[in-house]
Amino acid sequence: MSRPRIAIRGAGLVTSVGLDTASTCAALRTRQNNFVELAFVDQEHEPLIGASVPWPGVGTGLDKLAQMAVSAIRQALASGHRATLASTPLLLCVAELERAGRLTDLDTGILSRLEQHFGHPVHGDSTLVTEGQTGVATALELAYKLLFDKGHAAVLIVAADTFVNRGTIIHNLDKRRLLASGVRAGFIPGEAAGALLVQRTNDERDVELQVFGAGMARELAVRDSDAPLRGDGLTQAIEHALKAAYAPADELDLCVCDANGEHYRFEELALAQTRVRTATPLWLPAESLGETGSVVGCIQYAWLLEAQKKHYLPGNNALCLAGNDSGARAAHIVAFEFSRQYRAVVEASSPMFKKIIKRGGNYGA
């Protein structure tokens, strides 16, 4: 008997290229960016490039992150699924505890500002996830337990993060991790907020993005370690996800990855793809948004939802990857499921439907 599944029903985004999901995903699709010169210089006194969100009136720091998160939440809740924040557990994904330059009072500060803005406390089953890039992957597993073990109708995954602050920039500049003079394989500091509305699957819905398999693992050869990089952690995470989804690697149509421009992450990705024997188109949000930390998971799934609406997916079976500096690696396999009525109507009107939209492996089991 297959494990029951969860579906990602709605999404909201606030990024440097758009203050909502539609505009952000339009920029991602066309590889547009809004990179600007920051008020920082590198060792050669050249200005650093960043991807800050043009959010007027609230300055920087916690106030800005909270306002961005509020907007993302409103977008996700407006997707027509009758969920309210008061009755919905909130899983808040933020920067990992050990990140240099982490905002003071980040954990309590955003939550208190959200409660103040919405006029009520967050749900009692709400949880803080401090994992950085892998936070949304962990939150999806927590959401599964809340939906099936505790019987909640919906769960809201919210992420807010920034690398555009003095402490984080100085630390990563000293480590030669930022794109700067003499550093060709570095990342661009960004910031963003995102939200995902997650519910149990419903076979009567025309279209829904379902999670078919998840895999978590740990990479021992983290950046700056003496261990040889073989991509073991990411490989294991992908293999676990494939096994959970009953899917062969050659039926994957797309990989959406959090690789941010650093040589280490691309080498790791290449090693894992070679060992798993998968070759797909690669979507990289960081090309347009820079490094967005814990928000990258929200961006990945929001992009898939929007791509399906606009009919530009290269296929239906997507692999979403994420990894943080401490060595955590996450892989999820997601695909769109369609009702029989919807499939019959679209097949009749679009001869390309059967070629583009398909189920992989034993997803329907």
TrEMBL record:
Organism domain of life: Bacteria
Gene3D superfamilies in the record: 3.40.47.10
Protein name: 3-oxoacyl-ACP synthase
Provenance organism: Massilia frigida
